[in-house]
User: What shape does this take?
Amino acid sequence: MSPPRAKTHAAKGLKLPTVPIDPAVTDKALLVQPPRTLGTTEAAGMTKVLLANTIIAPGAEVRLWPGLDVAKWDKLHLTIGADARAVPNLHVRVLFSMPLPGTHCGGLLTSSAVDFATDGTLRRFEHTTPSGFGATGFTMSVPVIAPMLYDVILRNTGPTPLEKVYVALFAQEL
Assistant: This one.
């Protein structure tokens, strides 16, 4: 019976017969949903921890060098945080590479793009958090503009060390 018709019957004061499920199900464990596991499912995307529990001293730079083939993904989401705390004064730069044999780095490097299909504005794949930045980390979402995620560079521009810094990558296919 369709939901609109059931509502009409109830409005007219008709009581529909119901059968309790308890006697029919002998194993009550079947009614409980199993716990969900978190994993890396290739069909939905790729998840990878690039940096875990690291201290970045004032003025120091940490290079992650993932060198990942990201050609099959449309967008990358880099989540940067400090164990559920903010990461003030952190400069993050994302470098892509177009492989080209015979070049110094093995490819042409880029950390920006100009998309003339939209508005022709230069988009830089870097961000610096301000000194009083928030209470948690942040996510940088960048389009995949070359086949390789060459490097992710983190630089502490502040006067105090950043403790327990993490970087996680999620690649998404649109």
Remarks:
- The longest helix spans residues 3-11.
